[in-house]
Amino acid sequence: MRFIRRFEETLLALFEEGVLNGTTHACIGQEANAVAVMEHLIAEDHVFSNHRCHGHYLARTGDAPGLLAEIMGKESGVCRGVGGSQHICAPGFKSNGVQGGIVPAAAGIALAAQLDGASRVSVVFIGDGTLGEGLLYETLNVAALWRLPLLVVCEDNRWAQSTPVAVNLAGSMAGRFTAFGIPVREIDSTDVMELRAAAGAEVEAVRGGAGPRVLLVHTYRLCHHSKSDDERPAEEIAARWPLEPLVVHGRRLTDAQRRTVDDEVDSAVAEVVATVRALP
User: Fold this and answer.
1) Across the chain, what does the average pLDDT equal?
2) CA atoms of 151 and 203, how far apart (whole Å)
3) Phi, psi of 185 (to 5 degrees)
4) How far apart are CA 244 and CA 27, in angstroms?
5) pLDDT of residue 31 exceeding 70
6) Residue 250 φ then ψ, to 5°
7) By percentage, how much of the chain surpasses pLDDT 90?
8) pTM for this predicted structure
């Protein structure tokens, strides 16, 4: 989690420096979700992400040089520099910046696994904003009917860009899925250990043939939506910092352990940046 946080903080600094172009969507405050889910996946599983994909990609692959090179538009990037921050295509990992656009692909890969008789699962990360996309519900219908090995991880960070959930979503989030007979495990937490246990149970159920399931995580995005745009009340954001994943899990560590982690991460990220800067 600390590595993901530092990597994205560095990305934002590189934008300020003028090294990067376009935009980027950081997951600062949501790192625990990625780490908790990825721990339970095997090499053959497939992960699908969205515009806020860096944490998912790093937790899944550890390929920080490839990701940074991609965002910097370099030939050595994951997609040779043409996918950028939002559109990653790597073995076992795909992301798409179109809200809900990656969900049918995730279901398709889940169907392929089912037809192969394989035990691999397909995991797709969506946000609360995606709950307004009709394509999602078409896919849920098919996934439920065919009992596909699909786990939907819905990261509800309370805001769809600049629109709060309260004025954007009718009914309950869980009800959007249970309407199709898909079980939902709902958790309001930033504690990586609590999330780890919940994610493990859901991955195990899907892998065991239980059909599609949903892990609905109520979390919070501490950073702006994209680089610098943020219309949320400052006091709301300030109230969430004491509850963020690194603080919560950090209480389990000694001061010395935290310093060691921070030093190792800072050194590792600095090495990645130096290496990628020198690439063509």
Assistant:
1) 94
2) 7
3) -105, 115
4) 12
5) yes
6) -60, -25
7) 82
8) 0.94
Q: Are 183 and 27 in contact (CB under 8 A)?
A: no
216: left (phi > 0), else alpha (psi -120 to 50), else beta? Answer: beta
* Identity of the amino acid at 164: P
Between 97 and 162, residue with greater pLDDT: 97
The answer to whether 38 and 60 have CB atoms below 8 angstroms apart is yes
Residue type, 16: E
Find residue 151's DSSP bridge partners: 123, 213
pLDDT (tens digit per residue) in 46-97: 999 999 999 999 999 999 999 999 999 999 999 999 999 899 999 999 999 9
> What is the Cα–Cα distance from 144 to 153, expressed in whole angstroms?
16
Residue 91 to residue 64: CA distance in whole angstroms: 15
Alpha-carbon distance 205 to 231, whole Å?
39
Structure tokens at 119: 């035990």
Within 10 angstroms of residue 147's Cβ, the number of other Cβ atoms is 15
Task: Enter the tokens of residue 64.
Answer: 């920080």
* CA–CA distance, 212 with 47 (Å, rounded to integer): 14
Region of 141 (left: φ > 0; alpha: ψ -120 to 50; beta: rest) is alpha
Residue 90 has φ and ψ, to the nearest 5°, of -140, 165
